[in-house]
Amino acid sequence: MREKILAAIDKNSKLTAADLAIMLGSTEDEIKSIISEMEKEHIICGYPTLINWDKVECERVTALIEVKVTPQRGLGFDKIAERIYQFAEVQSVYLMSGGFDLTVLIEGKTMREVASFVSEKLAPMDAVLSTATHFVLKKYKEHGLPLVQIKHDERMLITP
Amino acid sequence: MRNPLSKKVVSIQPSGIRKFFDIVSEMKDAISLGVGEPDFDTPWHIREEGIYSLEKGRTFYTSNAGLKDLKVEICKYLKRRFGLEYQPDKETLVTVGGSEAIDIALRAMLEPGDEVLIPQPCYVSYHPCTILAGGVPVVIELKGENEFKLTKDQLLDAITDKTKVIILAYPNNPTGATMDYDDLKQIADVIVEKDLYVISDEIYSELTYGRKHVSISSLPGLRDRTIVINGFSKSYAMTGWRLGYAVGPALIIEQMTKIHQFAIMCAPTTSQYAGVEALKNGDADVEMMKDAYDKRRRYLVHAFRSMGIECFEPFGAFYVFPCIKSLGMTSEEFATKLLEEEKVAVVPGTAFGDCGEGYLRISYAYSIENLKIAIERIERFVKRYKDR
Fold first, then answer.
1. Which label site among B40, B143, B195, B208 has the fewest CB atoms less than 10 Å from its CB?
2. Which residues in chain B land under pLDDT 50?
């Protein structure tokens, strides 16, 4: 049931416990208790909203930064990752295989703000060896959902 | 001038769906729960394969019966999913949707005056196609209390010396009814005993919920007297590609192929290439879509029952078939008033046969958000008329 609930709310967190109970053949109480268990266990970590900020009249810049770091003895990459993700402007941090170690996604109001974060906060860290900053020009799809086009139902209204 | 028209064709009534479609099209910003096709787009990898075939310049006819690769994949698929064994050669024919297969199966099998049993409510083409093929349609009126399954007694009552073919369509459009092995066994014995042939329209075979589809062709003695019709429209959300197929005994398929050859040549080549990809790599897509339909199905059944509207639980296709007799309106009155007053389009059960009176076909090939808005309006409507 846990997986069924997660699959259902993965793309639509607006579904209520009552809706889920009907759709998954369960009871509202059971759904509520499973969800709260998963919240406690930090399986469900939050309920953010997917927003296409390009359509809103406010400046926002997203950058993807490739970071090479020196792992620390006994702690590996976790400690340095934590030092980085604690910054409020950092949206995501992933440990990578391949040519660099961490992917850091940053959001700022302006390019200058992002640049100063990289040059003043990120690059000077002891463990950080190098950074390569890529600015995002346009977002097409996020969290499995296309951001760019609104899809209209083009089917005929009544068909056999 | 002489009358240019065939009496037979003129005598055929246009489908009830058409009539209702014309009313709905007039209505501005109506929301519809009236479609008989998936709301999903064809999965991208399938579309991409179609595009690739065009880029490669595969724009020629295929052999009449269809691409060899596609026929091989169809047979593998039927074995894998339903345990049916057919040969790609001689026993498999790729058609322009399931609808063509229905038409040519009837034309290949009927002599003038042969009776064809058509359990209703059902898809709109069986009746007219039977007439066009020179047969005589004999309607069996299925009953709500049997959850619209065909029973042995009803079948026996309808059989005469002239009965040759029965058209079975489970999972069913419009009722959503399914028939499991035991249900089929009852009628299968009669079919063998009375020496009938079956056209089994299994286009919704992938869309069953909490149970697996059983093809009547898999029952003892039925393989040699059954044409199984299936296709890509519903399972892979490929309605516009017009791709279906028929499998059955070589004796019949060969004659169907002859009609197909002269009337159609071959199914669209682009669609056939896309179809190969669908069968090879599309199982996960089917699962994903089925899972979404199942949630909506539960949502709708619950919603109608909460309104105090009788609604048996359908285990197949993507329709619920609630009974609105308690409101003292005919299906058509209900559907017309609902459209006028709340701007929601549903299809009256009578569009699928007279015995659909008192019922509505509600499609759940819509997003949950859409269904919620529609249900709110229907609820308001029902409340208004219940209190009268």
1. B195
2. none
Q: B134 to chain A nearest CA, in Å?
A: 23
Fold observed for domain A53-138: Alpha-Beta Plaits (3.30.70)
CA distances from B4 to B7, B11, B244 (A): 10, 14, 33
The whole-number average pLDDT for the span A111-135 is 94
* Token pair of B377 as six digits: 């309006």
Could you state, in order of their start, the residue ranges of all structural domains in chain A?
2-40, 53-138
Q: How close B102 gets to chain A, by Cα (Å)?
A: 15
Q: How far apart are CA B187 and CA B142, in angstroms?
A: 14
Q: In degrees rounded to 5, what are phi and psi of residue A142?
A: -140, 145
Q: Is B7-42+284-386 assigned to CATH 3.10.129.10?
A: no
A24 in reach of chain B (CB within 8 A): yes
Contact between A158 and B295 using a beta-carbon 8 Å cutoff: no
CB contact under 8 A, A157 and B368: no
Quote the ipTM score.
0.82
DSSP B14: P
pTM listed for this prediction: 0.91
pLDDT at B13: 86
Confidence of residue A156 (pLDDT cuts 50, 70, 90): confident
Per the structure block, which two tokens stand in for B145?
A: 């209390």
* Cβ within 8 Å, pair A158-B291: no
Q: Is the pLDDT of residue A121 over 80?
A: yes
Q: Regarding predicted confidence, which is higher, A143 or A130?
A: A130
Residues in chain A: 160
- Domain extent listing, chain B: 7-42+284-386, 56-281
Class of domain B56-281: alpha beta
Q: What is the pLDDT of residue A63?
A: 96
Q: Is the peptide bond before B121 cis (omega within 30 degrees of 0)?
A: yes
Secondary structure class of B235 (helix, strand, coil): coil
Q: Between these two residues, A159 and B151, which has the higher pLDDT value? A: B151
Contacts (Cβ under 8 Å, ≥6 apart) of A141: A147, A148
Of B285, B293, B332, give the one whose Cα is nearest residue B176. Answer: B293
